[in-house]
Design brief:
This protein has 70 residues and is mostly helical. Helices cover 71% and strands 0% of the residues. It contains four helices and no strands. Helix 1 (2-18) packs antiparallel against helix 2 (24-31) and helix 2 crosses helix 3. The chain is elongated and about 55 Å long.
Length: 70
């Protein structure tokens, strides 16, 4: 029963992440995993990262700001 409960929790976390209702951080919190464990957990289950072109552009703008680039 404990293993089944864990599997159901993992499956729910994956589906909520895929649907965009949970962030990667929230998946980790739900499963008691740190950042890198969560990355590995999702990769091992062939779950694509929820990272859009807009996310990339925002990250690049932040990096440019931090580095003082025009």
């Amino acid at each position: 029963p404990k293993a089944r409960s864990q599997r159901l929790t993992e499956d729910a976390a994956i589906e909520e992440y895929r649907a965009g209702r949970l962030s990667q951080r929230q998946v980790g919190e739900m499963l008691g995993l740190d950042y890198w464990q969560t990355e590995r957990f999702l990769a091992e289950r062939n779950v694509s990262l929820n990272y859009s072109l807009g996310d990339l552009q925002a990250d690049r703008a932040t990096l440019d700001e931090v580095l003082g680039r025009p």
